[in-house]
Q: What sequence folds into this?
């Protein structure tokens, strides 16, 4: 039996045919997408996490559609299969800030609530000393061309230490969330937000949310981010619960670390130059973004005093 | 009466059922949704999440026990039985066209109600304490209501000129008080009999048994709206049904007797339950409620509407003694047979 035949039988869809085999197919109930999972436990975390976010009338996450016998997945050729709606219509961010606020709050709440095996959580070594070491190990001729990375070390250290200090003050356990790091993941269905989840391993903390806010900040400017933060605040006490964590994430010199990794692998000068230009831009944006978050975190009376 | 609704308003909700509305019309509290894949009833309610969970449990239970006379809920494509927004809770069912001209609606309804009670009945472990508490709580509540009405009548009687509503209420007041005494007496009988027999039972009560919550389709009857379903004595549903049927202009003793007989054939009431039913029916709560309505006038009704409402409630309650005769007469027959 072919996959589409199996899907038709299991879900009761009619007139199925592939649009982009093996991912997107058409049914009489609209376009659907197949997600393939190698790790059943990861899939089950995604199911539970998305179900907890649920359907909120004006905001949706691409939950697993149930089969006719109420199963959310089935096995196929040593993989696990889930079926989702395929929504392509892009969502205009500026008109959906309220919906994004509700969604981000829901993402965090689900991240607090849904249990996750620690083995599933993505872990990345973000110790700056190991990156300094890595920088030292880069070939001399490459390093010569990337002196900026060396000059930035004192600032990197300052940012890193401050960030760690803040991390030590945040409560644990941290929320565990999907890598919802870009507004591009938001699609529009009947003027509502439809968030496309990933099939990646979850992340502990709010790094994806910081990345999301930073992208919005870059693309739409600080005012819209401020509005988004207010919208999130309407649905959860974001400032109180996650404010320090957000600042800690913002201070972490990730762009510097990423640049070292790129240069380490770079095979030509052009790549090195491109990554250094990108670093300059990202570094400045990070600085401004951190200052913005710091200001946002300060109580109103302190702001007045400033 | 039906009202055309902008179907776009419900598109995102119906998207969760993979339904694309072509036309939506409002019929009372239900939206009739026309799609390429069929016609559906979308119910908009104020149920809280916990009430919705209970409703879902009720539906699951009905399916599990094989009860056939209800309209099931559809789940969303994600498996949720309800969709919530900030203010409302929605659920979807197939649209089942009601045969409005079906002659013997109440008879079928009472028979299906008896089946519901029969299939869900559970004898409770006898506890004298629970019975005494239930008796005392209800007696206390009734006495409290009676006192409120007595105070109201005192305040009314001090006036020189009474409004038509007040006049009607004053005229009937002593009769109503007599009914409360009778209701309390029936309730006392219930308590005594339960204590003697050491038994009581509960069933799944629909909660709002009325012709408006019953659909007849292709000669079969189905209950809708289990939003107020509760585990309680079968008398709760029966009293609701009999009381609401008394509002109908074509009500008569013969019909009431037939319905009660039909119910009894499928689910015979205990002797003590009949006393409880008589007490529920006799207590003139519906009249007292009309006084509350008049005094608060939340609906901004004109005086004449309040008077009409009160008169109809009094007429309704006047029929009670005839119904009680039917209920308790059968009781005596049973006693004689015993």
A:
């Amino acid at each position: 039996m072919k996959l589409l035949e199996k899907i038709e039988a299991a879900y009761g869809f009619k007139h199925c045919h592939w649009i982009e085999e093996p991912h997107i197919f058409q049914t009489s109930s609209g376009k659907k997408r197949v997600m393939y999972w190698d790790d059943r436990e990861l899939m089950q975390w995604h199911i539970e996490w998305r179900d907890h976010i649920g359907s909120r009338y004006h905001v949706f996450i691409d939950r697993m559609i149930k089969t006719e016998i109420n199963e959310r997945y089935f096995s196929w050729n040593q993989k696990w299969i889930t079926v989702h709606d395929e929504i392509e219509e892009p969502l205009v961010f500026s008109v959906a800030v309220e919906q994004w606020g509700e969604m981000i709050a829901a993402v965090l709440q689900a991240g607090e609530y849904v249990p996750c095996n620690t083995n599933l959580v993505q872990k990345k070594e973000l110790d700056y000393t190991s990156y300094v070491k890595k920088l030292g190990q880069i070939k001399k001729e490459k390093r010569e061309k990337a002196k900026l990375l060396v000059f930035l070390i004192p600032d990197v250290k300052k940012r890193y230490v401050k960030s760690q200090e803040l991390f030590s003050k945040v409560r644990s356990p941290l929320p565990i969330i999907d890598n919802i790091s870009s507004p591009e993941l938001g699609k529009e269905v009947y003027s509502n937000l439809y968030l496309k989840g990933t099939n990646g391993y979850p992340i502990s903390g709010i790094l994806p949310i910081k990345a999301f806010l930073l992208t919005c900040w870059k693309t739409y400017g600080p005012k819209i981010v401020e509005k988004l933060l207010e919208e999130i605040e309407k649905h959860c006490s974001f400032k109180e619960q996650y404010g320090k964590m957000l600042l800690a994430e913002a201070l972490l010199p990730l762009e510097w670390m990423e640049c070292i990794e790129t240069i380490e692998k770079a095979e030509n000068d052009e790549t090195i130059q491109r990554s250094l230009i990108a670093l300059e831009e990202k570094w400045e944006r990070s600085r401004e973004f951190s200052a913005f978050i710091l200001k946002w975190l300060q109580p109103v009376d302190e702001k007045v005093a400033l | 009466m039906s009202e055309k609704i902008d179907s776009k308003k419900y598109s995102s909700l119906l998207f969760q059922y993979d339904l694309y509305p072509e036309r939506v019309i409002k019929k009372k509290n239900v939206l009739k949704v026309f799609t390429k894949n069929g016609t559906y009833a979308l119910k908009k309610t104020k149920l809280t999440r916990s009430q919705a969970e209970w409703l879902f449990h009720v539906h699951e239970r009905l399916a599990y026990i094989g009860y056939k006379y209800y309209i099931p809920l559809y789940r969303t494509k994600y498996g949720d039985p309800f969709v919530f927004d900030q203010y409302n809770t929605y659920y979807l069912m197939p649209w089942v066209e009601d045969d409005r001209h079906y002659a013997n609606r109440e008879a079928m309804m009472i028979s299906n109600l008896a089946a519901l009670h029969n299939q869900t009945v559970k004898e409770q472990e006898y506890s004298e304490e629970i019975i005494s508490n239930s008796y005392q709580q209800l007696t206390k509540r009734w006495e409290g209501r009676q006192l409120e009405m007595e105070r109201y009548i005192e305040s009314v009687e001090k006036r020189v000129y009474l409004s038509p509503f007040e006049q009607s209420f004053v005229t009937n007041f002593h009769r109503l008080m007599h009914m409360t005494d009778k209701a309390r007496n029936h309730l006392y009988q219930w308590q005594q009999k339960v204590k003697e027999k050491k038994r009581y039972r509960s069933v799944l009560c629909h909660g709002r048994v009325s012709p408006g919550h019953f659909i007849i389709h292709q000669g079969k009857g189905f209950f809708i709206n289990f939003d107020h379903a509760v585990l309680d004595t079968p008398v709760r549903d029966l009293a609701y049904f009999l009381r609401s049927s008394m509002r109908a202009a074509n009500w008569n003793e013969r019909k009431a007797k037939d319905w009660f007989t039909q119910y009894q054939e499928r689910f015979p009431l205990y002797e003590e339950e009949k006393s409880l039913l008589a007490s529920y029916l006799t207590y003139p709560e519906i009249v007292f409620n009309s006084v509350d309505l008049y005094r608060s006038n939340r609906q901004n009704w004109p005086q004449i509407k309040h008077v009409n409402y009160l008169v109809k409630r009094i007429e309704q309650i006047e029929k009670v003694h005839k119904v009680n005769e039917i209920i308790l007469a059968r009781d005596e027959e049973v006693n004689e047979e015993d």
Remarks:
- DSSP finds 13 helices and ten strands in chain A.
- Chain A has a mean pLDDT of 91.
- Chain A has two domains: 3-85, 93-305.
- The first strand of chain A starts at residue 17 and ends at 20.
